[in-house]
Design brief:
The chain is mostly helical. The chain has a domain of about 120 residues: Four Helix Bundle (Hemerythrin (Met), subunit A) (Up-down Bundle). Helices cover about 80% and strands about 5% of the residues. The protein contains five helices and two strands, in the order ααβααβα. It has a two-stranded antiparallel sheet. The longest helix has about 55 residues.
Length: about 180
């Protein structure tokens, strides 16, 4: 639904309820205000505002932490996507792939530090590090020819499967972080 429709509906229903309660005498209103009622109103309003502000601060803090962590995960996913592009071509530039692995490893270590310092400290990246190590072993274990690692059909399927699993593991991590 359109948000303006909802706003209009709320305002219209508020006006109709106000007219209804003011024109029909189902309720009697006092013409005077007691000082105790004012004090109760002030205390209730103050407590309500205090709770709302503090809950909002905690929510914003947790949301900011999640945003930073998810941004770092997206950076890793972009690096993995670059690697998957070369894997699909079956021709991986050796120096570029080495640099990609180094970059992913640095981001993974930073991500591990961020997660340990956040409210999601129970999450572990050990599975991601194992997958990275396995993928690195599969790719760099092949001998480069003229600066390129040429994938054959025999190792292409295994490498592309591991690269996809590695990428999916990071999307699952995003889901886990959003549940924290």
């Amino acid at each position: 639904m359109n948000k303006y429709f909802i706003y209009g509906l709320c305002i219209t229903s508020g006006v109709l309820l106000g007219v209804f309660f003011c024109n029909f005498s189902y309720f009697e209103f006092d013409k005077s205000i007691k000082i105790t009622d004012i004090i109760y109103w002030i205390i209730t309003s103050t407590v309500g505002l205090y709770i709302a502000i503090n809950v909002n601060k905690v929510f914003q803090k947790n949301h900011s932490e999640k945003d930073i962590i998810i941004l770092e995960i997206k950076t890793i996913i972009k690096s993995v996507d670059k690697m998957i592009f070369f894997i699909k071509m079956k021709r991986l530039p050796f120096e570029t792939i080495k640099a990609q692995f180094k970059e992913i490893n640095e981001h993974l270590n930073l991500l591990d530090t961020l997660i340990k310092e956040s409210h999601c400290s129970t999450l572990s990246l050990s599975n991601h590090k194992k997958k990275l190590h396995e993928l690195r072993r599969l790719i760099t274990g092949l001998s480069p020819t003229n600066g390129f690692i040429i994938l054959k059909n025999s190792n292409f399927n295994d490498i592309s499967k591991n690269a996809r699993e590695f990428k999916v593991a990071f999307y699952k991590l995003i889901f886990a972080i959003n549940k924290c």
